């Protein structure tokens, strides 16, 4: 859904940036592999919410890699976490209480805050600081 809602995000993925069909993207092994890495990082954050140093460390690594190696504009983290929240709310509608929504909204903010802090730390020059 992320790539359907924000097709410009595909520019960062040479393996499937030209794919238009959502089913083709869904079947892409490279996309599935990346999705597993993303969810693994989020799982690590969730499992370590009581260890702020671990959370900071994991999200700093993600932020620095995406800033320096992949050159991804940080706004895409806000967009991705928004889509994730949307999908979780739909998939677990019966269990997605206001409390759960609040917790996932805090998680979304936590991820974006830490990732963008890493961008600032490495001196992300390709993107204006005001949008971080």
Automatic annotation (TrEMBL):
Residue ranges of domain Globin in the record: 1-120
Pfam families for the chain: Globin
Catalytic activity of the protein: Fe(II)-heme b-[protein] + nitric oxide + O2 = Fe(III)-heme b-[protein] + nitrate; Fe(III)-heme b-[protein] + nitric oxide + H2O = Fe(II)-heme b-[protein] + nitrite + 2 H(+); 2 superoxide + 2 H(+) = H2O2 + O2; H2O2 + AH2 = A + 2 H2O
EC number of this enzyme: 1.15.1.1
Domain of life: Eukaryota
Keyword Translocase tagged: no
One GO molecular-function entry: oxygen binding
Keyword Transit peptide applies: no
InterPro entries: Globin, Globin-like_sf, Globin/Proto, Globin_lamprey/hagfish
Record family assignment: Belongs to the globin family.
Main function: Involved in oxygen transport from the lung to the various peripheral tissues.
Protein's UniProt name: superoxide dismutase
